C-alpha cells in the first residue's frame, strides 16, 4: 500500500462518495473528526427539517399534524430498515432508546422461550447491553453466561457456540464490538443460536450505516440500534428496533403502552397489541427528534450502504497500515482485528497512556475517543471523512508521540463520553 | 357571573398572565385552540433553541458538547420539578416517555413491597396507565384491582380507599383525569395508600402546568408526567419522572442502562445504580428534544403555577357557566365535576353526536378534541388562552348547535389523537 499523503489524496479524488462531505456542517473547520462512531456530524439539512416540523407542523398545524405524525415511528423505521439495513418494509420501528428497545426485545424473546433459563452475552460488550441482560436475568431468576472475548480480536465464534445449549433462551450480541470494532458473523451466529433453540438480539449500534447488515439475507430475527452514530441523527436521538415479520405476532413486549395498542384511539379497556411492528411501541413517538433521524438516515440510504461499507473498509485499512508504519514504533499497538474482513468501520489503538494521548490529540485538532482501559478509538465515518483526514490524523498522532507533548496532560481521567 | 363577551374582555384586561400569549406561535391566526391539554402551542423561542443546540452544540461542538449535555435529564428535570411541581432539586428526571417512566417506577415500587400481589388503578384512567399496570401484573402474576370511577365526576376517594388492603403494593392514578378533568386529592390518597403500606405512582400528565401539584408539600413518593401538554415541549417530547429523595436509594428500576450506572464511563463489569435520581435513567438522554422541553417548562415556571392554576380555574368556571347557559339547552351536558375545586384546567362536555360536533367545530376554527364515547374535551391552556377565546368558542359551538351544521359530517370515526 502506498502510504504517502498524495496516495490518500488520490483515493479521495476517486471516491464516489466524496460529494456527501459537503452536506455536513463544520467539515471545513480544520478539525479531523474521527468520532463519528460516537456522535455523527450534523447534516446541513437538519436545522431546516427541525424548523419545519417545529414552526409549520407544530406551531401552525398544531394537534391536526398528528395525521402525519402518527406513523412517524414506522415511516422513519422503514427508511432505516429498507434503506440501510436490508430489512423488509414494516420490520423496523423508530422508538425509545437503544437501552429500552433492547429491554423490550430481550423480555419478549425470553417470554417466547419458556422453560429456558439462561441468557448469553459477551463479557466485552457495551455496558448497556450487559446491564440490560443482567437486569432481565435478575428479575426473572435466570442465569447469565458472559462469554469471554478477546478485547482486541473480538469474540471467537467457537467460544460462543460452546455456550449454546438447551438452557439458553436469548443471546445478546453487538454486530460490531464497540471497543475493538470486531465484526461478528451475523448469519452464522443467528443460525447457530437458532439451531440451539435460542433467539439472538443483535445490537447494531456500531454497525448501522458503517457495514452491510443485510437483515433479511442473513435471516436475522431481532435487532436494535442507535441512530446518533453513523446515521447522524443527533445527540440522544431515538433508537430503532427490528423484528422479523414472521416473528412479530408471536412476540409481546413487556411495556404495554397506548402506541402499541390495536385501535389505539378507541382507548379500550384491555391491552390488545397491534398487529405488525407497531406492537413494539410503547409511548408517544418522539416527533421532533425523529425529524433529525430521518434526515440522517436518508443521507445514508442515498449514499448506499454498499459504497459506505467499502469506503469504510478502505479507510480503516489505510489507518491500520499507517498506524503500523508510524505509531507502532512509539509503542502504539493495534487493538482491533488485523483482518479487514473482521472489522467494522472503526479502529482502536492501545497505549498505556491512552487517556493523555486522547486529550492531547483533541487539543491538536484530532478527535478520537478514549475507551477503558487504555484504548484510543478512531472512527472515520465514510460518509464525510476523507482518506487524507485519516492520513493527517495519523501524522499528528505520530508528531505527538515524537514530541511527547501528551506528557503535559494529567493522568487522572475526567468524565467523558 | 356576568356572561357577556365584554365581561370576558374585562377578565383578559385584568389578567396578569396576558403578556405570555405573545410568546407563542400562531396566536393571531384566528383559531380558537382549546386543545393545549393534548398538544401545547409552540413557544416562539423554541425554534431558536433547537437551532442553537443543533447548529452550535452539535454541528460545531460535536462530541465535546457532551460536557454540557451529560446532565440534561436532571437539569431540565429540575426546571420542571422545582419550577413547576414543588419538588426539591434532584427529584425529577427528564427521560423516556410517560409510558416507559411509569413502567420503570411501577416495577421499582412493586419490587420494594415484596409479598404483596395486587396493583390498583382506576378503570377510567388513561389507556397507557391501565395497560402498563396490566402488563406488569401479567408479568409478575399479580392481580389488578380496577377501581370504578364516575366517568364525569371522577374517582370517589371512598371507593379507592375500600380497595386498599394488605395485598396492595402500588396504586397508579392520574392527578387530573384525562377524560373528565376530575382532580384527585393527591395528599389524601398518598397518605391513605401509605397507611395501607402501598406506594402511589401519580400520573401528572394532565396536571403539570395546569394545577398546583406541590409534590413536597403533599408528601408524594412517585410520579410521572408528560411535557407536551401544558408544558409546551413539543409533539412526543420526553417525559419526566419524580422520586422523592428519601426513596431514591431504596428503589431500583428494571431497565438497567448505562446512563443509570454509577461512574458510567468506567464501563465497569457489573451494574451498580448511580446515587440519586440518575439511577432512574436508562439510555442516552434525548438532547435535541430536551431543548424544546426546557423552553416550555421555563415559560411555565416564569408565569408561576399559582397564577396559572388560578387562571385555569377561572377559565373553566366561565366555560362551565357559558355551557350551562348556551349549550345545555341543545342537549350538551357537562361531563366534568361541577365543583371547580374538583377540576383540573380542562372541561368535558357530552353529546350523543360528539364526534360530528368535534369535526364541525374544527372546521369553524374551534379546536377541542374528541374522546370516546361521546365527549368533546375543551382545554383552554391558561398560559396563552384568553377568556374571550373561551367565550367565542362557546358562541361558535352554540351557533353550530342552532344551525345543525354538524349533521353534514359522517358519524363514522376516523383515527385522531
From TrEMBL, chains A, B:
Family annotation (NCBIfam families): kynureninase
Keywords from the UniProt entry: Hydrolase, Pyridine nucleotide biosynthesis, Pyridoxal phosphate
Family: Belongs to the kynureninase family.
Pfam family for this entry, one: KYNU_C
Alphabetized InterPro entries for the sequence: Kynureninase, PyrdxlP-dep_Trfase, PyrdxlP-dep_Trfase_major, PyrdxlP-dep_Trfase_small
Assembly: Homodimer.
Annotated pyridoxal 5'-phosphate binding sites: 98-99, 126-129, 203, 206, 228, 258, 284
Top class in the EC scheme: hydrolase
Recorded catalytic activity of this chain's protein: L-kynurenine + H2O = anthranilate + L-alanine + H(+); 3-hydroxy-L-kynurenine + H2O = 3-hydroxyanthranilate + L-alanine + H(+)
Its job: Catalyzes the cleavage of L-kynurenine (L-Kyn) and L-3-hydroxykynurenine (L-3OHKyn) into anthranilic acid (AA) and 3-hydroxyanthranilic acid (3-OHAA), respectively.
Name of the featured protein: Kynureninase
N6-(pyridoxal phosphate)lysine, modified sites: 229
Biological process according to GO: anthranilate metabolic process; L-kynurenine catabolic process; L-tryptophan catabolic process to kynurenine; NAD+ biosynthetic process; quinolinate biosynthetic process
Lineage: Bacteria, Bacillati, Actinomycetota, Actinomycetes, Geodermatophilales
Amino acid at each position: 500500500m502506498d502510504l504517502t499523503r498524495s496516495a490518500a489524496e488520490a483515493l479521495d479524488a476517486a471516491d464516489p462518495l466524496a460529494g456527501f462531505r459537503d452536506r455536513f456542517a463544520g467539515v471545513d473547520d480544520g478539525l479531523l473528526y474521527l468520532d463519528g462512531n460516537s456522535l455523527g456530524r450534523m447534516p446541513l439539512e437538519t436545522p431546516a427539517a427541525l424548523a419545519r416540523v417545529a414552526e409549520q407542523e407544530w406551531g401552525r398545524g398544531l394537534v391536526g399534524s398528528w395525521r402525519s405524525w402518527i406513523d412517524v415511528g414506522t415511516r422513519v423505521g422503514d427508511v432505516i430498515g429498507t434503506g440501510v439495513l436490508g430489512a423488509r418494509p414494516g420490520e423496523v420501528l423508530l422508538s425509545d432508546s437503544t437501552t429500552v428497545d433492547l429491554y423490550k426485545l430481550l423480555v419478549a424473546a425470553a417470554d417466547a422461550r419458556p422453560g429456558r433459563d439462561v441468557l448469553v452475552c459477551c463479557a466485552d460488550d457495551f455496558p448497556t447491553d450487559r446491564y440490560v441482560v443482567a437486569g432481565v436475568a435478575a428479575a426473572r431468576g435466570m442465569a447469565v453466561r458472559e462469554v469471554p472475548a478477546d478485547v482486541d480480536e473480538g469474540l471467537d465464534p467457537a467460544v460462543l457456540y460452546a455456550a449454546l445449549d438447551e438452557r439458553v433462551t436469548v443471546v445478546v450480541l453487538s454486530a460490531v464490538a464497540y471497543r475493538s470494532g470486531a465484526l461478528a458473523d451475523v448469519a452464522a451466529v443467528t443460525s447457530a443460536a437458532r439451531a440451539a433453540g435460542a433467539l439472538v438480539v443483535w445490537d447494531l449500534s456500531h454497525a448501522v450505516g458503517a457495514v452491510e447488515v443485510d437483515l433479511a439475507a442473513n435471516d436475522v430475527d431481532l435487532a436494535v440500534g442507535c441512530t446518533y452514530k453513523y446515521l447522524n441523527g443527533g445527540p440522544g436521538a431515538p433508537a430503532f428496533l427490528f423484528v422479523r415479520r414472521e416473528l412479530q405476532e408471536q412476540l409481546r413486549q413487556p411495556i404495554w403502552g397506548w402506541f402499541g395498542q390495536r385501535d389505539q384511539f378507541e382507548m379500550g379497556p384491555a391491552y390488545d397489541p397491534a398487529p405488525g411492528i407497531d406492537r413494539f411501541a410503547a409511548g408517544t413517538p418522539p416527533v421532533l427528534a425523529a425529524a433529525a433521524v430521518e434526515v440522517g438516515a436518508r443521507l445514508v440510504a442515498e449514499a448506499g450502504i454498499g459504497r459506505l461499507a467499502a469506503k469504510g473498509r478502505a479507510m480503516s485499512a489505510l489507518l491500520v497500515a499507517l498506524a503500523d508504519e508510524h505509531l507502532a514504533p512509539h509503542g502504539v499497538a493495534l487493538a482491533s482485528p488485523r483482518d479487514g474482513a473482521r472489522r467494522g468501520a472503526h479502529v482502536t489503538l492501545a497505549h498505556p497512556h491512552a487517556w493523555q494521548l486522547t486529550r492531547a490529540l483533541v487539543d491538536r485538532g484530532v478527535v478520537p475517543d478514549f475507551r477503558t482501559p487504555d484504548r484510543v478509538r478512531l472512527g472515520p465515518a465514510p460518509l464525510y471523512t476523507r482518506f487524507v483526514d485519516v492520513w493527517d490524523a495519523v501524522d499528528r498522532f505520530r508528531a505527538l508521540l515524537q514530541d511527547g507533548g501528551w506528557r503535559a496532560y494529567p493522568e487522572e481521567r475526567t468524565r467523558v463520553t
